[in-house]
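Second attempt. The first submission of RING-type E3 ubiquitin transferase had a stray character pasted in from the spreadsheet, which I only caught after the job came back as garbage. Lesson logged: always re-copy from the clean sequence file. Corrected sequence (682 aa) follows.
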Amino acid sequence: ITSPVVRQIDKQFLMCSICLEHYLNPKVLPCLHTFCERCLQNYIPPHISVSFWRPLQVMEFYCESCETAMCLECTEGEHREHVTVPLRDVLEQHKAALKNQLDAIRNRLPQLTAAIELVNEISKQLTDRKNEAVTEISNTFEELEKALHQRKTALITDLENICSTKQKVLQTQLNALLQGKENIQSNCSFTEQALNHGSPTEVLLVQKQMGERMGALARHAFPEQPHENSHLDCQVETEGLRRSIQNLGVLLTTSTVGHTSVATGEGLRHAVVGQNTTVTVTTKDKDGELVKTGNAALRAQISGADGTVTVTDITDNKNGTYEIGYTLRSEGEFSFSILLYGQPVRGSPFRLRAVKPCDAPQSPDDVKRRVKSPGGGGGGGGHVRQKAVRRPSSMYSTTKKKENPIEDELIYRVGTRGRERGEFSNLQGISTTSNGRIVVADSNNQCIQVFSNDGQFKLKFGVRGRSPGQLQRPTGIAVDMNGDIIVADYDNKWLSIFSPDGKFKNKIGAGRLMGPKGVALDKNGHIITADNKACCVFIFQSNGKLVTKFGAKGTSERQFAGPHFVAINNKNEIVVTDFHNHSVKVYNADGEFLFKFGSHGEGNGQFNAPTGVAVDGNGNIIVADWGNSRIQVFDSSGSFLSYINTTADPLYGPQGLALTSDGHVAVADSGNHCFKVYRYLQ
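This time the job returned cleanly.
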């Protein structure tokens, strides 16, 4: 019953027995004509016209336009221009429709029951794991308390033993001294008695005996110097232990769920026998938002039709993305299952087909490499590009006391999240010009923005696209001696060159580069770019001709794991930040390895994924420490000097770095969608 009049009557008034019978009769849908005159006059609001009323009319017709039942009078009244049909003709149709809807929602009951069971099971597992963790924490700290008690007992026991040994030595010496004193006093007393009170005969009789005894006592070497000392201290270094205890234990969790997380890569569907293939899993939470931390329970399995299972290798990038690598040994059809916490990611399981190398199709990029750059193609890299800023736990560890800060300060910041002038979305590279300009690669907005040294907006250019002159994902940026702007375009896989006013001039590296990130220029005018995906460094002439390239994926001196940015020092050496190897590596102009510095951690001189890099006039190397959200300064040999004080306006995932023409440090603060300029004391 949907009539507002009926609802009003139903809620506020009583009906006569006849009207109530019609009201409750499912075969008679009420309208104004189904009520008696008294009920109608008493209970129908005055603004409703009752001029067409005729009591106790049965609902026999149906208006298809209004989707409502009516009596004969209504078909000649307000519904006279509508299509009406006998109610009985549409009754079965509507009953069938309702039954279909009923069946549809009833069919969801098993799904909801299964979902309820699953959620209850996860809730139970969560509670169980919490209880297990509480037990583990309790046991750990009980063991620590036991160990502390044991150490306390051992220290006290050792203390007692040492004290007892020393006391024995001192007591032996004391006994000897007391005995000597007693002997001297006894002889002195006896001799004085004889001298004062003895007869001459008695004195003569004892003179020889007492003289010998006193002579012996006079010559005797008594232990007058201490045979021991009172030094007995307990030194317990507690500061380091206290810090360790305060930071003891890490709680690992993630909001990742399977049904919103996605897997990408050609390796989900196609593979070549004997060749290592990788796919990327990007984790998301229940709302589809990117999860920015690692440690998720990810499992992958590739099963053949004959039941064989291929081993997979999973790499946690610690930023919410994961790489799954595998190598198939036979051709055929496979089922590729990817599970997060036991639940499939979107689209899993995938149908995977493996073919022999001779049957593998040639990609357009392969053809380009052979035609345009024989022997110069970049090797395959497996690093996954960062699409979102993660926040490692160290970002929030602001209680660590850092030593020797350079007393610099924030001069200004420019930007907020947006698409307008002076607004950014995940800015990446930053560069400066000799005439006082700051140039920023606004990555997710697919444009370049130019500012003055004091932060005033000057220029914005760039059009999204994959054609020459367009930008798809600008990351690195550099400015040459002529003022031309070189942009590393990660997704377009080339470097674009623009005039100082933003006019496109040329592109280089197409067909060679796989994912250029940072870019710089050396003293010879060569363009150096770090290829994040290929895990190598390319050196081009300004006309695009390849000079050389070096590097491959790995952990050795000449290998990289996701190189990010490059800089050139005053010796024309190439400085590269090696993101996943948590280090900075230095090479000569020909790509020969010289040295590296840094390791994984939060201490001075350590990194948690370094990104931007710049070199000042004294050869000092300035590095953006992305995961630790700070900027560190090293000398030309890689020894830690200090860090730039950014506490006034903390960084949130810094990317590119550059030195302005007036000697300040400009940093692309990616997570805060702005760039900042700090005073820097060289």
